[in-house]
Specification:
The chain is of the alpha+beta class and 72 residues long. The protein has one helix at residues 10-34, and strands spanning 47-48, 52-54, 58-59, 65-66, 69-71.
């Protein structure tokens, strides 16, 4: 079988993984605060986008919206 994905050793990116985990938690808290609560916390996930991960549009003051995107 042809494995086209490169090997990714966890020990080589462990610090990056921990940092990314923390940032996704921070963004999740922002999303939790800015969006109406939906059962099973369906209002807080990050979505896969063409560039990485995104919150999609979230309501803000005065009818404005904003979005947070992780550009990988």
């Amino acid at each position: 079988m042809n494995n086209s994905w490169p090997e990714l050793k966890f020990s080589e990116w462990q610090d990056t993984c921990a940092t990314l985990h923390m940032w996704t938690q921070v963004v999740g808290k922002i999303r939790l605060r800015q969006t109406p609560l939906v059962n099973h916390w369906w209002n807080v996930p990050l979505y896969v986008s063409a560039r990485g991960l995104t919150t999609s549009a979230m309501p803000y003051r005065d009818g404005r919206v904003f979005e947070i995107e992780f550009d990988f």
